[in-house]
Amino acid sequence: MPEIPSQPNVTMRIATSGLRAQQARMRVIAENMANANSTARTPDGDPYRRQVSVFQPKAIDGGQGVQLARIEPDSRDFKMTYDPGHPAANADGYVKTPNVDPLIEALDLREAQRAYEANLNVIETARSMEMRTLELLKK
Question: Domain total for the chain?
């Protein structure tokens, strides 16, 4: 009897690609949050620049998953904070601070967590369906 490709296995591999992509995205967000208050050491230097995850489609057994294509720097301008006593202050007393907004990062993190949970639910549902199919075949 010829082997029939198992659709739940393809589904699980596609969902697993989503898990990996969202996990990588959460790592980037965590790095952004950890550096949100950093500054340059010198007046000429730049502080931490926010990083953004970029995904791309990935073919998986006739289906389409996702993968992290690259991590790009956010091109938005740095924030300027008036702090003339800071070692990194320019001649006007302003310090460049990262272009990281903790609120945006928190929202992005929550979105990534929900996408991760959705992919996990797909895997659990596919596994459950596969187990139920095996139970029916035993009868």
Answer: 1
Q: What is the pTM of this model?
A: 0.84
For 60-109, the pLDDT digits (tens) are 988 899 999 999 999 999 999 999 999 999 999 999 999 999 999 999 99
- Residue 71 in any domain: the answer is yes
Q: How far apart are CA 88 and CA 106, in angstroms?
A: 27
Say if 121 falls within a structural domain: yes
Question: Whose structure tokens read 């995904």?
Answer: 55
Domain carrying residue 35: 7-138
